[in-house]
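Exercise 7.
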Amino acid sequence: MNHTESLTRYVGHFIDELVASGVEDIVISPGSRSTPLAMTAAEHTGMNHWIQLDERSAAFFALGMAKQQKKPVALVCTSGTAAANYYPAIVEAYYSRVPLVILTADRPHELRNVGAPQAIDQIHMYSHFVKWFQEVALPESSERMLRYIRSIAARACHTASDGNQGPVHLNFPFREPLVPDFTLENVWGARTNGFHTHITGERHIDSQNLAELKQKIQSRKKGLIVCGPQWDEELPEQVTQLAKVLQLPVLADPLSQIRAGEHEKDHVIESYDAILKSPKLREKMKPDFIIRFGAMPVSKPYMLMLKEYQDISHFVVEDFEGHREPTTSPTEFIYADGKAFCKALAQESSDLFFDKEWLNFWQESNRIAKATLLEDRGKEPLTEGHVFSELMELLPEQGTIYVGNSMPVRDLDTFMLTSPKSIRVLANRGVNGIDGLASSALGAAAHGEEITLILGDLSFFHDLNGLLVAKQYGIRLRIIVINNQGGGIFSFLPQAQHPDHFEALFGTPLDIDFEKVVSMYGGAFSRVESWSHLRNELLETREGLSVIEVITRRDENANWHRSKWRAVEEAIGQEIEDL
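Solution. The predicted structure, written as tokens, is:
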């Protein structure tokens, strides 16, 4: 059997097993050495292939798609720096637990470390930021090697999806010639229902450990349930039911999926970030214990409270494993399925009684904070925070908000109030970077989902290359760009007190006309100048890419936010005295 036939069957069996293992989408950045993988994936009728020329954008596109689809997406690139450009998205995928199957083509062993072009060391190049790495064998077409390559594909998909999801990396050395021959019979081999099968049970907290937990919290009267960023759309129902049974408040991060949906929200406290910005309020609202689900919340004031009061008993529920506790607080980690844990604790809680006035105070403070935050909405000039309030009212059922980092996610935290609508909220909070956000949102929107991305002008600038895929495939995505001429979040940080260097080093104004950029990629563009204009644009339904630019001023925005936080503290003042 000649080289081309061995190559074709070997790669054909691999791609076919990816499909059998549930991978339906593959994102390809064109190159020469990756020809066998790219052409074979494009040939397979069970695989959707997406072309994105820029590898950095391609990897974030796959990440967003995997988040929205909740299953692994594959990536293909050629050798050399193409593979290195995947790095930012892989790091984000690792820390935000997103399943990716990364396929990098490589020079064969005899062309490594000898000065051959486009050859770098790709062995373990992503270090510990992948769950599993394997350099696969050179292509052969013996029955044993075809079983081998199927097992590699099946294992990669399972590893990416099992437990805490994440990226895996397979490195493929290929010798020339690289072009497969699809005239061969039975390129895909014998179709399977999955080369490997896996049976995995839920992790439950046993009765003894549950009794020990109850003993630790039953003598304490002021508890909090906290839910940080997480994807499981079934968890909100169980968390809010547990809160109802225990009569405890739920501090719900905007990425917890708890603030929107049909589940009960009587115990949900969505304005806790604004409330806890006050040191005085943090002191009065200090809990005796916290039970947390999901990652650490976005809220910096919440984190400050944990750092300030190390005597709070802290319980973190993780479905599988992990150590997501950056405050150095003494913490008890409970490794059990979150939904099962909620049900078990709720069923055994008849003898747990907590301070009802504590719950009442949180609920009343939340009501006051919401009313204060929404005062004068629509009557004042365009403000960054109230863009989220408007969007939440106008977003349709089953819509998704993809939010950028820095100020946008913090404004979402403050101004995303509870809603009965089924609205999903996504973000790249693994490492909180501002790169790849447009590509991530486009990946989430690629299969026709209703996605609105909100990000700052610097984040938008960082990923302009990613807009090409919207033009190529006619992907419908609405982007709201908050343009405050640079890094707005730095206006809230100590760097702002050093005007001699602030603008050059931190403010970094762009002075770019985004309308021309959007036009280049075939998108619709509007620059809104009033609340009515913004509402009209949000109600407009457009095909393809549409960008709404909201112009604000960094200094005015910082002052406006601070005035809102002061107003919240003052409005709750009387409640503090009565506590």
